[in-house]
Amino acid sequence: MKKSYVFQTIISILVAAAAGGAWMAVAMEDGEGHVPFDPIAIAIALTLLLPFVIYRQYRLYNQHVRKVLFLLDAIENNDNAIHFPEADKRADTRLVNQALNRIARMLYNVKYETAQREKYYELILNSVNTGIVVLNDNGAVYRHNDEALHLLGISVLTHVSQLQRTDPKLSTLFANCVAGDELQVPLHNERGTVNLSVRVSDINIRQEHLRILALNDINKELDKKEIDSWIRLTRVLTHEIMNAVTPITSLSDTLLEQTEGKAMQEDVRHGLQTISSTGKGLLAFVESYRKFTRIPEPKPSLFYVKGFIERMTELARHQYPDARIAFRTSITPDDLILHADENLIAQVVINLLKNAIQAIQSDKQRQEQGIISIQARCNEAESVLIEIANNGPAIPADVAEHIFIPFFTTKEGGSGIGLSISRQIMRLSGGSISLMQGKGETTFVLRFD
User: Fold this and answer.
1) 71, 216, 280, 409: which could join 414 in a potential S-S bond, CB 3.0 to 4.6 Å?
2) What span, in angstroms and rounded, lies between the C-alpha atoms of 165 and 209?
């Protein structure tokens, strides 16, 4: 393109010089047909014609510049329909248009491949269970995945200063951490207390220093391992107990049947009956624990939360008809929908309502009416939350630490597996259950992600 401009300019100047010289020659021809050569006349002709040549080249140059700018604007606005005509009569314009069309195609291909690569990386980031946050030394967040927002309990993260509203200490930690740090920090949000593991690495891209923070929920991993350990232990214990007790119960029943109607010492018969009834009771007791290891695989479906909660509260009223308890429900919005296994979640909610009713009834000094409030809503991270609160006595701190441990109970005759099963169901459903206490209420929070 540059050679074409130079060549065209030289030709134009030579043509102008020749025309000017011819014109001066004709004008100065003497009577005998001789044309005197006058350099001054030629210089004057060139001086007069050169501005026109320069102006013409300037206009052509501006036209091409406008085309380039138009092309850049179109690419920036994702307008891939732009195309310059390649059948122009002028050779130089035709060559320029062809070159611009080639450049446009190359830039569009590069932009498309870059966009596809970005989507590919984003899918990879969002498929891992580790939260990823990439930020520069000024605290600006360059990239994050969905798991990071979920762990932090926020919906938008463009700068670490936004964490001030959630946890000021975490904001300071993110701002000051350096490559190689391996930190553990508690985060207090609507999910309760989450213990985060933070690992920091760094990288330099385009002469800018970036830090990469990998976030993991320690509680989630520990809970999973703990539940798996309890399940294995329970399976072993129930298997061994049932193998040992079943023959004893069967043998005592057989002896009682064979001696029926025959003379036998009363204390022997009574002993056999005691062995049989105790064995059967123990088998029933062990069978209840086996439920902890036999939770079926969830079969999720869509259902309306409002109707579901109404059915659960009505069932709780029928189970405890004499309880002086008021149920208060708040579902926002009214058509809130949950995707989960309705039958399994019903077990969790019924168990929490039963515990709430029993907690209120255990307070013999209570003068005011018992209240159980159920709230369901969708938070900023688009997780569905169901909160079941009661105004019964608070759970002591030393007890609250163990309520989700299998077989732990403070109730007389309790099995200690209700909350353990609830936690297992929520884990299998991809959610969580947590305890929150304060302001005279005990609240269990079911979170569905």
Assistant:
1) 409
2) 26
